[in-house]
What we know:
Blueprint: H1 3-6, E1 9-13, H2 18-36, E2 46-50, H3 54-74, H4 76-82, H5 92-106, E3 107-110, E4 121-124, H6 130-143, E5 148-151, H7 158-165, E6 171-176, E7 185-189, H8 196-208, E8 212-216, H9 224-246, H10 248-262, H11 269-276, H12 278-291, H13 299-306, E9 324-327, E10 330-336, E11 341-344, H14 350-358, H15 368-371, H16 377-390, H17 394-415, H18 422-432
Parallel strand pairs: 1-2, 1-4, 2-3, 4-5, 5-6, 7-8
Antiparallel strand pairs: 6-7, 9-10, 10-11
Helix pairs in contact: 2-3, 2-5, 3-5, 9-10, 9-17, 10-14, 10-17, 12-13
Bound molecules: nicotinamide-adenine-dinucleotide.
Amino acid sequence: MDLDSRMSLVSVVGAAGKMGSGITFLLAQEMARLSLLPENKGKLYRLIAVDLDPNALRGLQEYVHVQAVKAAEKSAVGLRALYANRPDLVENSEIIEDYTRRIDAMVWPTTDLAAVAGSRLVFEAIVEKIEIKTSVYRQLKELCPDAYFFTNTSSVPIGVLDREAGLGGRVLGVHFYNPPPVQKLVEIIRADSTTDDVVAVATEIGKRLRKTLIPSHDVAGFIGNGHFIRDGNHGLAEAARLAKEHGWPKAFHIVNRVSQDWLLRPMGIFQLIDYVGIDVFKFIQTVMGKYLPETLSDPVIDRMIEKKVLGGQNPDGSQKPGFFTYEKGRIVSVYDLDKGVYLPLDPAGWTGEADAALGPLPEPFRPWKGLVGAPDRSAALVAHFERVAAQRSLGGELARTYLGRSREIGRKLVADGVAFDADGVNGVLTSGFFHLYGPINDYCK
Ligand SMILES: NC(=O)c1ccc[n+]([C@@H]2O[C@H](COP(=O)([O-])OP(=O)(O)OC[C@H]3O[C@@H](n4cnc5c(N)ncnc54)[C@H](O)[C@@H]3O)[C@@H](O)[C@H]2O)c1
């Protein structure tokens, strides 16, 4: 069966979640494009959006509609080309209306998994729990005997899913990054058992969705989380060490600043863990730990979870309290793990003391934001890390250790056969995590 035939009946399971909703929208756009091609006139395209949560499915419909309107308004010229054989639609507004109506009608939300019957492609983005995923796949296998299954799992080995659910090689890891419509990166994870055609179909879909595809071997956590979890654990261990002398709020503040400002990353490590969700970080640690000969759990994460401080986002996209609390996306207070309270930032008080302990930034300093689109970025990075190498402050020391650990993790991912090569690791960190440079580099050696 060719790809275009497969694309006529597609399902997303877990469609109303963070990842599922973005994947649903991306697929709806591609299916709408196909439905408008003259050779497909009269063909029916259906995108079955399954989720356990009926309220979230209503939110999904609203989200898809709003995104479709935005996308149509943004690319009126491209849309016009797609509507070239519809002379009955003259005004831009008529085309936009038809396009959004088409997308709205294509997405069929349901809480009934049986509605996926006969689907030819199934994208799965349900909760990261292997028993639940396996049980859903066992049902999917019966419901869709011809389907190819694309799982968005962040950590479960694809071969394990294939074996446990008996999918006969029809499953592939297609690991979108959050949020899928915005993030370019998709990690492609093939199990030993995955058939060539499944990979070929996913590769073609990835191209059509204009994604950057990076292959990873089938090792729990793959490249992205393989680096993120260990890098996060390094930050957590550093904070625990510093907390003995400075207390938790200063320790979290210091490590977060080093990992953002000294390492020139878009966010500090604890802000990133808050964004992902402290509970999600724990899930991934646990699943990876199950399959790898390495302890990945961390006592700080476990204590945060015990105290029900979980991070993650509210339905309106705002950040929930985690290591920090936020106002309009900015950090305003820091958690004290011993006292169980948040301490407001106080530049004239404790925050100023922590910054003084850290020492000055490597000057002249250009933050991530100022470098991300800069034409002289490569030279600026070299100069920045020469200054970091020369610093005798706590900030310089922590940054060099952090950089070294990140490099070691990157190299290990290649040595352990998770990444195909150093470019694979660097590509995932630069395109999926928006780092300005890959972990396998020569800075501060
Ligand atoms: N959030 C991220 O940053 C991120 C990034 C990459 C990959 N992932 C992976 O994507 C998957 C989904 O993660 P998420 O963050 O979108 O989670 P989420 O909790 O936001 O969404 C999961 C959705 O699945 C639904 N669901 C759960 N069990 C179901 C079932 N049996 N049948 C149908 N629907 C069910 C839930 O109601 C929910 O809407 C996980 O495997 C996760 O590891 C997440």
